[in-house]
Automatic annotation (TrEMBL):
This is Rab-GAP TBC domain-containing protein. It comes from the Eukaryota. PANTHER family: TBC1 DOMAIN FAMILY MEMBER 19. InterPro entries: Rab-GAP_TBC_sf, TBC1D19.
Length: 475
């Protein structure tokens, strides 16, 4: 101890010195960033939504919808004289294992299987949420959510969230070849690649999230998405994926046929996704077996069925939640995973990216709740944005239900950059408004559902980011 230094001061200096050395060692070994990312991802996974929704009408609707799905599953089993879950015969297990990387060659008779439900069925359920409003005239709106006592943002409030867009800042999805404002780079794309490489090397998730707000270059997107969602693959993830695969091989779930059917009806028939058919079978089958999905969504989804697995004597091992993930696939469910096929060719990395995105965002789109990012709030936000910002279109459009078209993969990836960057699904109703505004002149010229459908069906020429930026920038 130095002369004249009190024991208390000496102790504090020793503690500061130790913490400084410890922090330096952590930074040198990369543990500092890992610890910060762990805290960041943990905070984001904490479910702050109350388990009991304050609106009993929504709770009842959710329970009734869940019962309807379960009834449909059981009816299909009875009609097909099969069971929800059964152990596979050894010969079937071996054939499935042999064809695991080429599941498109695995022969199944799916002619009698049908999707449990389609998005259109769920839309009809959402529409009935307004059923208790006393409409007396035939020309009154049948799809309004305005009576629901939920708080949603105005366009001005959205402008404050998407500040980079509303201020007209250069965005990669608008004009990648425009001259860079930074002297070292010839174009905006080159500037974003240079900055993105530094951000990826740093590996700090909040910084990556901020970077994604202005769009990611295609060459960096796969790495940045995995980092911001904490979905990087290690030996532990590979082992877990193999466990899921083993579960698929051993137990035949009735929804396996629904998954095969859905891939065939959607991705296999799409000229942009059909080449990924085998990858999608692996990912979707393994997802159905992932009990961690149900655990992480506890309180955010419904109550799954519990069934006995046929084929062995009843024991603790022969009883399972159906499906183990708690998620019953609907028609089009596969399309949540298809854009990732343009980023990852490894099924393990593809799986954990899809799972992370689903757990963070997509599960909210098919569960009835009052969550501000849930499907009911998003529908209400869309309705109010349309009514307040396009009143003439609202009047013309109010009695017509419209089925959306599909965005091309490149535009989807840019849109999902924004969802990750702003960590927000409110961009979806905003995009809906932007598309309707963009095509309103054509919509005003038609008066039937079929013709409106035709106007909105083809989204292949839509550029997502310029439309969104235009919607947010003040006139």
């Amino acid at each position: 101890m130095a002369d004249g230094v009190s024991p208390l001061v000496w102790k504090e200096e020793r503690e500061i010195s130790f913490m400084s050395k410890c922090h330096k060692a952590m930074k040198e070994k990369g543990l500092d960033t890992k610890l910060r990312n762990t805290v960041f991802h943990w905070v984001r996974t904490q479910n702050k939504q109350s388990k009991l929704d304050p609106l009993t009408s929504l709770t009842k609707a959710s329970v009734q919808w869940e019962k309807r799905i379960h009834k449909s599953l059981n009816s299909m089993c009875s009609d097909l004289e099969t069971s929800l879950a059964k152990f596979r015969f050894q010969s079937e297990l071996e054939e499935l294992a042999e064809k695991w990387n080429e599941l498109s060659t695995y022969n199944l008779d799916l002619s009698k299987y049908r999707p449990v439900y389609a998005p259109k069925d769920f839309l009809e359920v959402l529409i009935t949420l307004s059923g208790y409003v006393p409409f007396t005239k035939e020309d009154e709106p049948k799809w309004e959510f305005a009576h629901l006592p939920l708080q949603v943002k105005t366009l001005d409030q959205l402008r404050k969230i998407y500040i980079e867009w509303s201020n007209g800042e250069p965005l990669l999805g608008v004009s990648p070849n425009m001259p860079s404002q930074v002297n070292d780079f010839p174009t905006l794309e080159a500037e974003r690649i240079g900055l993105g490489e530094r951000v990826a090397a740093l590996g700090y998730a909040p910084v990556i999230q901020e970077y994604l707000k202005r769009g990611s270059p295609q060459c960096l997107r796969a790495k940045l998405w995995a980092q911001v969602l904490g979905a990087e693959v290690s030996a532990q993830q590979i082992s877990y994926f193999n466990q899921l695969k083993r579960s698929v091989l051993e137990v035949d779930l009735m929804i396996d046929k629904l998954i095969f059917k859905d891939v065939q009806l959607t991705a296999s028939n799409d000229d942009q996704y059909f080449v990924f058919e085998d990858l999608l079978y692996q990912v979707m089958l393994c997802f159905s077996r992932d009990c961690e999905v149900m655990q992480q969504l506890r309180g955010s989804t419904g109550t799954p069925l519990t069934v006995a697995i046929k084929g062995r004597q009843t024991s603790a091992d022969s009883v399972t939640v159906f499906p183990p993930s708690g998620i019953i696939p609907f028609h089009g469910f596969t399309m949540y995973a298809t854009p990732f096929c343009y980023l990852y060719d490894d099924p393990v990395q593809l799986y954990f990216m899809f799972r992370a995105f689903y757990l963070r965002y997509w599960h909210r789109l098919h569960y009835i709740s009052t969550h501000p990012q849930g499907i009911v709030s998003l529908c209400l936000l869309y309705e109010r944005l349309l009514e307040s910002n396009e009143p003439l279109l609202w009047i013309h459009f109010r009695n017509i239900n419209v089925n959306p078209g599909h965005l091309p993969p490149e535009q989807l990836l840019l849109l999902w950059d924004s969802i990750l960057g702003y960590d927000c699904l409110e961009i979806l109703p905003l995009l809906s408004l932007a598309i309707l505004s963009f095509r309103k002149e054509n919509i005003f010229q038609v008066n039937t559902l079929q013709n409106v459908d035709a106007v909105l069906a083809d989204l292949s020429t839509i550029s997502v980011i310029p439309l969104l930026q235009l919607a947010l920038m003040k006139p």
